[in-house]
Amino acid sequence: MMEQPTLRVTLRTPDDWHIHLRDGAALPRTVGDAARQFRRAIVMPNLVPPVVDAEDALSYQLRIHGQIPEGNPFEPLMVIYLTDRTSAEIVRQAHQAGVVAAKLYPAGATTNSDSGVTDIANIYPALEAMQACGMKLLLHGEVTTADIDIFDRERVFIEKILSRVVDDFPQLKIVLEHITTAQAAEFVGQARDGVGATITAHHLLYNRNHMLVGGVRPHYYCLPILKRSYHQSALIEAATSGSPKFFLGTDSAPHAQHKKETACGCAGCYTAFSAIELYAEVFDRVGKLDKLEGFASEFGPDFYGLPRNTDTITLEKRPWALPDSLAMGEEQLIPLAAGEVLSWRLV
Ligand SMILES: NC(=O)N[C@@H](CC(=O)O)C(=O)O
Ligand SMILES: [Zn+2]
Ligand SMILES: [Zn+2]
């Protein structure tokens, strides 16, 4: 019998424009996984306590650097966490220290967001300073008031908050992170220049049925929460459209197994172990593998005003099963799609 030649695709090395690496004992796992496939990563600042200024960001960056495998050129790009007390001066100092962005977590919106902003008006001076120095604004785009249903929180954030910030700061570069709805895809698609969005692999691969039909599956629980399949289709459409407004951000977020599989489980999916392979799965499924390179490796650096990577990675069509569990320090971590078979594998 003749062996079929193995299908391969070679891509410019991708970057991850939204990842949670955490700290301490988690770092060898998270940094190692990210550095295996990505050259750069935008590192989320929601540590406890959060990364709020230049000093915090630089010391966190050093701890990450300490875990990059020998000879690997991985580059963590640092972000500060906006609080009610973030001043214009804090922004300017962070910018001078090489911090590329500041992250807005509405207070209480997601994991480790208790120090987040309680009213966007409190950070208008910080946003002015960011606009002036070119620092990007990254948004966890969900309102948090109890009267708004969890499935509507992103849509209401866009209507009530985002549309205002986009207009009030016409030169500010804004990324609506981990979008999950057709409304978000549409808003960003039609927004002025300088407004973009990241999309996770899990919001492309799954909808809320995957999380809730036949039993509740805590490893699919993340924020913003998985939505209807109609929204999933809109996200796939946006990610594979070739529009430079949409780019890769895994939102990979490690929570130990015992913190997910419990009565009140944490929000976040761990995808860093196989992120580019998960994205390849989706793009291939809809016949758009040719659009993966723009989404994964070009539109992100273009948006951030950074050079595109010049080296490449290769994916091969060779089915493999994800491990059931990974070690993270002394703890166990269940990767998203644990035990499932993926078609593409990083060579
Ligand atoms: N996405 C999540 O569900 N969790 C993230 C926080 C975030 O990005 O909202 C985390 O830090 O665990
Ligand atoms: Zn978030
Ligand atoms: Zn996140």
From TrEMBL:
Catalytic-site annotation from UniProt: D251
GO molecular function: dihydroorotase activity; zinc ion binding
A cellular-component GO term for this protein: cytosol
Keywords: Hydrolase, Metal-binding, Pyrimidine biosynthesis, Zinc
Binding sites annotated in the UniProt record for Zn(2+) 2: K103, H140, H178
Domain Amidohydrolase-related: start-end pairs: 84-320
This enzyme's EC code(s): 3.5.2.3
InterPro entries: Amidohydro-rel, DHOdimr, Dihydroorotase_CS, Metal_Hydrolase
Catalytic activities: (S)-dihydroorotate + H2O = N-carbamoyl-L-aspartate + H(+)
Pfam families registered for this protein in UniProt: Amidohydro_1 (PF01979)
Cofactor(s) in the UniProt record: Zn(2+)
N6-carboxylysine: residues bearing it: K103
Pathway where it operates: Pyrimidine metabolism; UMP biosynthesis via de novo pathway; (S)-dihydroorotate from bicarbonate: step 3/3
Superkingdom field: Bacteria
Residues where Zn(2+) 1 binds: H18, H20, K103, D251
Binding site for substrate: H20, L21, R22, N46, H140, L223, H255, A267
Gene Ontology terms: biological process: 'de novo' pyrimidine nucleobase biosynthetic process; 'de novo' UMP biosynthetic process
Note on how the cofactor is bound: Binds 2 Zn(2+) ions per subunit.
Top-level enzyme category: hydrolase
PANTHER family according to UniProt: DIHYDROOROTASE
Function: Catalyzes the reversible cyclization of carbamoyl aspartate to dihydroorotate.
Family the entry assigns: Belongs to the metallo-dependent hydrolases superfamily. DHOase family. Class II DHOase subfamily.
Subunit structure: Homodimer.
Protein name from the UniProt record: Dihydroorotase
Gene from which this protein is expressed: pyrC
